[in-house]
Design goal:
4 copies of one chain form a homotetramer. Chain A is mainly α. Chain A has 2 domains: 138 residues, Four Helix Bundle (Hemerythrin (Met), subunit A) (Up-down Bundle); 108 residues, Helix Hairpins. In chain A, 73% of the residues lie in helices and 0% in strands. At the A-C interface, helix 12 of A face helix 12 of C.
């Protein structure tokens, strides 16, 4: 196969047809499959069903991904930016190429996690991050991302307001509840756990104020939590509304 | 009664008056009644009040629904698409006719569930699904459905983003909490239960992280949950706003 | 004082100045005070501080309200609709006059609740309902109510969708969880309690599914709950946006 | 250094360059640092790591803030409004200057809290309130604040509706649940704790109704809670949408 054809099949931006090239479609499906299996593998009851199967599957996926990585490295020479050895080095350190590398590495780091359950779980998490490779193939984001981007300033402000409310309600509950519940409200960072659960209206209920004053502050925090949800929602609604209308106007002209 | 009159009374699209024909109004009320009784019947304390009543009522409803089904099958001959035996067969396998059949079948499958509590409950669920028959009579959906439809792409994207966040937060909590809470966070699929409860801000609190690092990740997840709610809300708000304005403009011209 | 002056002071629509007449301002404050005291009175620790005070205060408020009621009945004769005895009877059975009566009655029904704690609490609730009398004085609603009213159809539809989802998720959890948790999921009406807490994202956590299949259905329900919140929010946002723009346009012309 | 230069460096409104002057940038960073350390200091495990460090750091911050306070007092003479001794006194009692003073005071009130854990915690809270000093440097608020301000009326109304719902649902649960759960629902103010947790959809689950009637009322309350969230969100969305469009129109002209 000629290198130019290979480049067209591998680089999404070089593909002339609509959607993805057949090769990238296959790669996408493999990434989804590998991630799904990495998720399943974490469950001990599933792992015990076929103890030998999962390392085998992993070896297969990694072999394919290495092969794909080398092909991309070879074919990218078609791109004027990545020609020659210096160009290839530049490609290796480009964003998506690094993501591709990170998708392969966990396999070779497996020996590090030998007999260390935490590192083993961390490696499995890295394996799941292969999903990030799909980002290379996706142009669907843009409309949503643009709407978000146009209101970054307002969204950051509402995050700031939320942060101040979070701190302030934690500090208030620390003042009034620390004496009766030192474990849960003994310091501001500790009270933050309750404060986040309340302001986001998650409300686990594993920690709740028990003093009357604590309940008064908690009630005010819960009500403020509605504002914390309403503000970004309102900003996003307005941003999307603008984005949709602009699109419709552009299409209408 | 002539078949043409019957067809007008039974087929919602053939009725010339406003709303539903008297026959379809009666059928709608019967469907609501049958569903309400099917719901009540699941409660043992209610069932024990009149053990013989519920099978009797069910037999009555099914008799009426069979009679209605046969009438519809006869009257649909007025419709040129469903004329003759081949046409009647085509009608039997049309969407709403199949729904009508599903509303009758559970009665005759009752013997299958003999002495099997799970199947019995499943049959009762099927009986409640009769409510779906009301969909045939309803044209009120369209405005809402159109608004949803016009933004399918954006809504799917936000579902995708939510799915990735769900996976990622599950994986993070699996990494940091699996050692201390193997039952609840021992695998990614297990951690998913906690992750869904947190990202949707339901927050049951039956499972919560106990390590400091776990609480930090959980806090970030809870805050991200606000975005998960804000995004579809914003998209829907924008979609409805557009739909209402278009309607008003059209009426204004 | 002449009856015409009295009528102007008592009937909000007859008052020529801005806001409320001094008499109605005083009545409003009394209503708020009476409600606040009725709320406080329910707390045993507060009641025990001054056992004799609360019946005395109640007697005072009721005396004033009766006096006010009789004055209104006398002064309303200025209104051509309520002239003469037939007119007065018509006034007594008008909406706001009945509300005024309900605010007085609990006092005279007190003997009914003698030694019956439940009826006593019910009477206290009726006393708090005096707040409804404030509705007579308020014209501030209209803008908000109009925005809600213009989208009644869409809001009802989203309530209908929510109701169906509620029923369906209850029925699903009844099917899969009834065997392991008969108390909480033993019937559809019982499962409804869990279902409401989940779909509204309240999530008490007093009842949660324990089977794997139950958790899968619960997860789907929780995600659907976001839609249940997003839909009315979106509809209201669009309705308010329209209402504000129309107002601004009208003012701009 | 000349007083005019000093004034330009200290007063944000006198600075000609973009953003903040280098001095105010340094002050901002010091405020953030001091607040962060005040938060950390509340945690006993952190405090025990370096028991002597935190009082030392606090002394350092306060020294700097006093020095800054005196410099501001000296330099403000450049402003015609605050010239002379009478002007300086007027400055001392101006809003932001009082905030500056409150940021210094907790240090000198430390002796009051000697051996009183509650007062000590209160002083730490005051120390965190130094964050409020950042408000002096921020003009970023205005767009968000304007959008909120333009709909104050509607937002207050929705707060009022929420308040009435809160009272009403508390009173209903007080009536039906007081007999079985006197601690949690024994009075309307007690039931308010449950009511706030439910209407804001926080749902801790530490208190839930147990009677059938109580669950019915609680379900209605939870559903009403969606409206409580949807209304301010809708109002804010509409307000932001208007604000963004006005800004775009102004820029477009």
């Amino acid at each position: 196969m000629r290198r130019a054809t290979l480049h067209q099949l591998l680089a999404p931006e070089a593909w002339h047809g609509p959607g993805l090239s057949p090769v990238n479609q296959a790669v996408s499906i493999l990434i989804l499959l590998a991630s799904f299996i990495a998720i399943l593998e974490t469950e001990p009851t599933v792992r015990s069903l076929a103890p030998g199967l999962f390392p085998l599957l992993e070896a297969f996926f990694v072999t394919v991904f290495i092969f794909e990585y080398l092909l991309r490295l070879y074919a990218v020479g078609e791109d004027t930016r990545y020609r020659g050895i210096a160009g290839r080095l530049r490609y290796i350190f480009s964003f998506w190429s690094l993501i591709d590398l990170i998708a392969i590495l966990p396999f070779f780091l497996g020996f590090l996690a030998y007999n260390n359950a935490f590192l083993l779980r961390l490696l499995r998490l890295l394996r799941m991050l292969r999903l990030a490779r799909l980002g290379r193939f996706s142009q669907a984001w843009s409309a949503l991302a643009d709407a978000l981007h146009s209101r970054t300033h307002e969204l950051l402000l509402s995050v700031g307001v939320a942060g101040l409310l979070l701190l302030f309600s934690s500090a208030c509950l620390y003042v009034v509840e620390a004496a009766s519940q030192p474990d849960a409200f003994g310091s501001v960072p500790r009270a933050l756990w309750w404060s986040i659960a309340t302001l986001t209206t998650v409300g686990y209920g594993d920690v709740t104020p028990i003093t009357a004053l604590g309940k008064v502050f908690a009630g005010i925090t819960a009500v403020a939590g509605i504002g914390i949800i309403a503000m970004p929602t309102g900003i996003l609604a307005a941003a999307f509304s603008d984005a949709f209308q602009n699109k419709d106007n552009t299409q209408g002209d």
